[in-house]
Amino acid sequence: MNQRLVSFWSLSTAELFQELQTSPDGLTSSEGRQRLARYGLNRIRDKNRTDSLTLFLVQFKSPIIIILLFAAALSLFLRDASDASIIMTIVFVSGLLGFWQERGAANAVDKLLAIVQVRAAVLRDGKEQEFSVEEIVPGDLFSMRGTSFRGTV
Fold first, then answer.
1. What is the pLDDT along the chain (153 residues), one digit of tens a residue?
2. Cβ–Cβ under 8 Å, residues 141 and 122
3. Cα gap 15→33, rounded to integer Å
Protein backbone atom coordinates (compact mmCIF):
# COMPACT_ATOMS: atom_id res chain seq x y z
CA MET A 1 0.00 0.00 0.00
CA ASN A 2 1.14 3.46 -0.78
CA GLN A 3 2.00 5.36 2.40
CA ARG A 4 1.38 8.82 0.95
CA LEU A 5 -1.33 11.01 2.40
CA VAL A 6 -4.58 10.58 0.49
CA SER A 7 -7.98 12.18 1.00
CA PHE A 8 -9.93 8.93 0.83
CA TRP A 9 -13.30 10.67 0.74
CA SER A 10 -12.35 12.32 -2.55
CA LEU A 11 -11.57 9.04 -4.36
CA SER A 12 -13.97 6.97 -6.38
CA THR A 13 -14.75 3.47 -5.16
CA ALA A 14 -12.51 1.90 -7.81
CA GLU A 15 -9.62 4.22 -6.91
CA LEU A 16 -10.14 3.49 -3.23
CA PHE A 17 -10.04 -0.27 -3.83
CA GLN A 18 -6.85 0.17 -5.85
CA GLU A 19 -5.23 2.42 -3.23
CA LEU A 20 -6.03 -0.01 -0.39
CA GLN A 21 -5.30 -3.06 -2.55
CA THR A 22 -8.65 -4.66 -1.82
CA SER A 23 -11.76 -5.67 -3.78
CA PRO A 24 -15.55 -5.61 -3.40
CA ASP A 25 -15.25 -9.12 -1.90
CA GLY A 26 -12.91 -7.83 0.82
CA LEU A 27 -9.53 -9.24 1.68
CA THR A 28 -8.67 -12.90 1.70
CA SER A 29 -8.02 -14.47 5.08
CA SER A 30 -4.34 -14.93 4.24
CA GLU A 31 -4.00 -11.29 3.12
CA GLY A 32 -5.70 -10.21 6.36
CA ARG A 33 -3.17 -12.22 8.40
CA GLN A 34 -0.27 -10.78 6.38
CA ARG A 35 -1.47 -7.21 6.89
CA LEU A 36 -2.03 -7.86 10.58
CA ALA A 37 1.57 -9.06 10.83
CA ARG A 38 2.81 -6.04 8.84
CA TYR A 39 0.76 -3.27 10.53
CA GLY A 40 0.20 -4.79 13.96
CA LEU A 41 -2.91 -4.65 16.08
CA ASN A 42 -5.40 -1.84 15.44
CA ARG A 43 -5.28 -0.12 18.81
CA ILE A 44 -4.33 3.12 20.41
CA ARG A 45 -0.91 2.98 21.98
CA ASP A 46 -1.06 2.58 25.71
CA LYS A 47 0.10 5.59 27.62
CA ASN A 48 3.16 4.87 29.65
CA ARG A 49 1.91 3.94 33.09
CA THR A 50 3.48 6.04 35.78
CA ASP A 51 4.90 4.24 38.76
CA SER A 52 3.44 4.78 42.23
CA LEU A 53 6.21 7.10 43.42
CA THR A 54 5.82 9.42 40.44
CA LEU A 55 2.05 9.39 40.82
CA PHE A 56 2.44 10.31 44.49
CA LEU A 57 4.90 13.14 43.76
CA VAL A 58 2.65 14.60 41.06
CA GLN A 59 0.06 15.26 43.76
CA PHE A 60 2.27 18.10 45.08
CA LYS A 61 2.35 20.13 41.84
CA SER A 62 -0.80 22.18 42.31
CA PRO A 63 -0.39 25.88 43.09
CA ILE A 64 -2.26 25.65 46.42
CA ILE A 65 0.04 22.86 47.61
CA ILE A 66 3.10 24.88 46.59
CA ILE A 67 1.75 27.88 48.53
CA LEU A 68 1.17 25.68 51.58
CA LEU A 69 4.71 24.27 51.33
CA PHE A 70 6.03 27.82 51.12
CA ALA A 71 3.97 28.72 54.21
CA ALA A 72 5.39 25.71 56.07
CA ALA A 73 8.93 26.75 55.14
CA LEU A 74 8.21 30.30 56.28
CA SER A 75 6.84 28.95 59.58
CA LEU A 76 10.04 26.94 60.08
CA PHE A 77 12.12 30.02 59.25
CA LEU A 78 10.18 31.99 61.87
CA ARG A 79 10.77 29.15 64.38
CA ASP A 80 7.10 28.16 64.59
CA ALA A 81 7.46 24.40 64.34
CA SER A 82 3.90 23.61 65.42
CA ASP A 83 2.33 25.59 62.52
CA ALA A 84 4.84 24.10 60.10
CA SER A 85 4.06 20.55 61.22
CA ILE A 86 0.29 21.14 60.98
CA ILE A 87 0.65 22.54 57.45
CA MET A 88 2.96 19.69 56.39
CA THR A 89 0.53 17.11 57.82
CA ILE A 90 -2.34 18.63 55.85
CA VAL A 91 -0.25 18.68 52.65
CA PHE A 92 0.87 15.07 53.16
CA VAL A 93 -2.65 13.76 53.87
CA SER A 94 -3.98 15.68 50.86
CA GLY A 95 -1.27 14.11 48.68
CA LEU A 96 -2.09 10.63 49.98
CA LEU A 97 -5.81 11.08 49.29
CA GLY A 98 -5.15 12.37 45.77
CA PHE A 99 -2.75 9.50 45.08
CA TRP A 100 -5.23 6.92 46.37
CA GLN A 101 -8.08 8.30 44.25
CA GLU A 102 -6.01 8.61 41.08
CA ARG A 103 -4.52 5.12 41.40
CA GLY A 104 -7.98 3.66 42.03
CA ALA A 105 -9.40 5.41 38.97
CA ALA A 106 -6.55 4.19 36.76
CA ASN A 107 -7.01 0.62 37.98
CA ALA A 108 -10.78 0.81 37.36
CA VAL A 109 -10.22 1.98 33.79
CA ASP A 110 -7.72 -0.84 33.18
CA LYS A 111 -10.21 -3.42 34.48
CA LEU A 112 -13.01 -2.03 32.31
CA LEU A 113 -10.82 -2.05 29.20
CA ALA A 114 -9.86 -5.67 29.92
CA ILE A 115 -13.54 -6.67 30.07
CA VAL A 116 -14.82 -4.78 27.03
CA GLN A 117 -13.99 -6.15 23.62
CA VAL A 118 -15.50 -4.43 20.61
CA ARG A 119 -16.17 -6.65 17.61
CA ALA A 120 -16.95 -5.69 14.03
CA ALA A 121 -18.28 -7.49 10.99
CA VAL A 122 -15.90 -7.36 8.04
CA LEU A 123 -15.97 -8.93 4.60
CA ARG A 124 -13.23 -11.55 4.24
CA ASP A 125 -13.12 -14.19 1.50
CA GLY A 126 -16.39 -12.73 0.15
CA LYS A 127 -18.43 -13.43 3.29
CA GLU A 128 -19.18 -11.55 6.47
CA GLN A 129 -17.02 -12.56 9.42
CA GLU A 130 -16.76 -11.11 12.90
CA PHE A 131 -13.39 -9.98 14.24
CA SER A 132 -12.12 -8.07 17.23
CA VAL A 133 -11.62 -4.42 16.29
CA GLU A 134 -7.92 -4.90 17.04
CA GLU A 135 -7.69 -7.44 14.18
CA ILE A 136 -9.11 -5.13 11.51
CA VAL A 137 -6.47 -4.07 9.00
CA PRO A 138 -6.22 -1.46 6.23
CA GLY A 139 -8.28 -2.67 3.27
CA ASP A 140 -10.96 -4.48 5.28
CA LEU A 141 -14.52 -3.76 4.24
CA PHE A 142 -16.81 -3.45 7.21
CA SER A 143 -20.50 -3.27 7.90
CA MET A 144 -22.80 -2.52 10.73
CA ARG A 145 -25.40 -5.23 11.25
CA GLY A 146 -28.32 -4.71 8.90
CA THR A 147 -26.48 -2.37 6.53
CA SER A 148 -24.65 -3.07 3.33
CA PHE A 149 -20.88 -3.15 2.95
CA ARG A 150 -19.98 0.41 2.14
CA GLY A 151 -17.01 1.32 4.31
CA THR A 152 -13.36 0.46 4.22
CA VAL A 153 -10.66 0.73 6.78
1. 555 566 777 888 888 888 888 888 889 889 999 999 999 888 777 667 778 899 999 999 999 999 999 999 999 999 999 999 999 999 999 999 999 999 999 889 888 877 887 888 888 888 888 888 888 998 888 765 544 444 455
2. yes
3. 23
Strands 127-132 and 151-152: unpaired
Cα dihedral across residues 99, 102, 108, 113: positive or negative: negative
Burial group, residue 109, by CB count within 10 angstroms (0-12, 13-18, 19+): exposed
CATH number 2.70.150.10 is the correct assignment for the domain at 8-44+117-152: yes
C-alpha dist (Å) from residue 44 to 40, 92, 148, 151: 11, 35, 27, 21
Quote the pTM value: 0.52
* Cβ atoms of 52 and 148 closer than 8 Å: no
